[in-house]
Amino acid sequence: MRLGSFDKVLVFSFLIFVWSCEGMAQVVHRERPEKWNELVLGGRFLDRFDKISPIGELVDSVWGAANVIPRYMENGIEDKEWSYWGGNIVYGKDQKYHLFICRWPESSSKGHMEWPNSTVVHAVCDNSEGPFEVVEEIGKGHNPEIFQLQDGRFIIYVIDGYYISENLGGPWEYGQFEFDPRDRPIIEGLSNLSFARREDGSYLMVCRGGGIWLSKDGLSSYQQLTNERVYPPVDGRFEDPVIWKDHIQYHMIVNDWLGRIAFYLRSKDGVHWKTDPGEAYQPGITVYKDGVEEDWFKYERLKIFQDGLGRAVQANFAVIDTLKHEDKPGDNHSSKNIGIPLTVGRQIELLNKKITENTREILVIVKAEPGFDPKTDMDFSSLRFGASEVINFGGGSVLLDTKERGEDLILIFEAEGHAFNEDNFAGKLLGKDAQGKLLFGYSRLPWVNYLEPMLSTTRPRQIDQENKWEIEVMNFGQVSSEKTSLKLEVKIKDEWQLFGDAQVRTLNPFEKETVIIMGNNGKSIKLGDTCRVVINNNTKSQELFVME
């Protein structure tokens, strides 16, 4: 069909409500968990925002509230005739930076609320910071995100559709995605989507409500895999998720627009996520190296510009200087897009194939890169390595010694304090560089399997006999599954009881099979019953359904 481990420390309370003149709640203060006060530099994603080099001239005769004047207009894109929103950057073969963004006339009768009638445009710059200049108008659409398919074509997602082209310069053809919820509730509708390409060219997508969807090639039908949102278990008003993948793991940031606070999550497979503590971003992050600060009221529509390894090197935001409903036609308020550089994670690799109770030393190699020499550019006394759960709070294994390997450097850590367990899929190096600035990097863990089958089922469907049911099983992983067993259980008097079972054959990626289950033991399933399908494939997975 077509459709338009965080613990109790994350329990937030509402303290202060601020109401706009229209009576709509626009801002609420979220009290941070006390535990966050113990985070060290680099323990939260917020610490990665770097100071910005001045771009062009500092201007004071420009639109905006006093909190954003004077400012560097040439950061990102802005002008007095248009309000800009959303957008992300890709690097082209022409060695230019291409920003795909939406806009509407600042003089529109509805002010900022004209956004449903916005138009997507293509802007270009010689660098990623700006100023970007519009070179092409593509068509109607809002909240664009551009990504490239494995076959080289480009997709610009917009709410309710997409544009596709062989080249960044067009021509662009409009189309609509197909979405199959697979008997799962669609969480808060299908808008504000964000996409990440997997190793095999398939695409993972997260929707505004936090559901995870997968497509075999990024253009074919997106199929929902999760039953519930993957966001942090807090009372946030979430929107604007952005997802990206690097050479180590998947990353996601989601914004609580009402609380003006965002959260950072990581995953080994893009489906099962853990939330890191601390703010991902918040107002107050636009700071220049010369001391100039721009205090934008809201930061939304975060997009990440990545390097060749997928590492996040720049954050781009849609920003506005006041409440959205206070941005009126022809007034002194508007919105634009800005870029903020990020501290880039270093390339590191864990050399131990396993870490056990008998391990004496942990070896981590730090690779040299242009502009970075690991032999001279690190403050060795500050370095720690281990699971992020302890590293972010100043713990982890302590550095004992170093050893050169060509241009690279091997760090030798003690084997105590790393805190790795079965829930970890990445190691984290954290400390400071020789100038006292943040230094960090993530490594894969050699004993973790990053490419596993992902068997998922639809709701059981009754066929011609009362106790005969069929279940569709599909492999959403990037590797083939093994032959495995499947059980259908029904909840009777608060206890799970076996209804029947079946065998599932080997399934290739995105291949599916329908299995038949015959009821036994005199049990039956009726409308309103809660059932679960249990698949024994490497790790046991369970999917719950209410029979309708």
From TrEMBL:
It comes from Echinicola arenosa. It comes from the Bacteria. The keyword Hydrolase applies. InterPro entries: Glyco_hydro_beta-prop_sf, Sialidase_sf. This is Glycoside hydrolase family protein. One of its GO terms (molecular function) is hydrolase activity. Keywords: Hydrolase.
